[in-house]
Amino acid sequence: VDMERSCIEADAIVCNAGAGSVAAALESGKPLLLLPMNAEQVLTCRRVLKLRAGICMLEQEVGRIDAALAKLIGDASLRTAAEAFASLHRGKRGARVLDRLAASIEDHLRRGTQTTSTN
Q1: What is the pLDDT of residue 51?
Q2: How far is CA 9 from CA 15, 25, 28, 78, in A?
Q3: Staple 17 to which of 34, 53, 85, 112, CB 3.0 to 4.6 Å?
C-alpha cells in the first residue's frame, strides 16, 4: 500500500498498528482504527488512544467493527486530535528523522574508520 497516497486520499486509516502506518496517518492528520496483531502493536494502540486520535480493537472485539467504523468517521474529536498531532509535528516527518539518523551513523562509522586506520 502506498501510505503517502492513502493518507492524502482517505478520511481515516484502518491498519494493524504498525509503526510506519500509524506515523504516516498521524503525520497526515488522519484518525485511525487499529487492529493490532502483536504486543508491540498493542503498545502503539495505547499511544494513539492516549492522543485520542484513534480507536483500538482487539481480536475478540471485531464483532463490533461496524460501530467502530461509524465512530471513526463520525467522531470529529478523533480527526481533531489527529490534526493537532500533524500540526505539532509538521516538518518533522519520519523519513527526515531516518535520513538524519543514517547520516549520523555514516559519520560515526567514517570517524571510526579514520581512527582505526591511523592507529
Answers
A1: 96
A2: 15, 11, 10, 17
A3: 34
Instruction: Collect all residues with Cβ–Cβ distance below 8 Å to 42 and sequence separation of at least 6.
Output: 17, 36, 56, 58
**Would you give the DSSP letter of residue 54?**
E
Edge-to-edge, what's the strand order for the sheet holding 32-34? 13-15, 32-34, 54-56
Residue 80: CB atoms within 10 A of its CB come to 14
User: Residue 13 pairs with which residues in a beta bridge?
Assistant: 32
- Tell me the C-alpha distance between 94 and 31, whole Å: 18
User: What residues contact residue 15 under an 8 Å CB cut-off, 6+ apart?
Assistant: 21, 22, 25, 32, 33, 34, 35
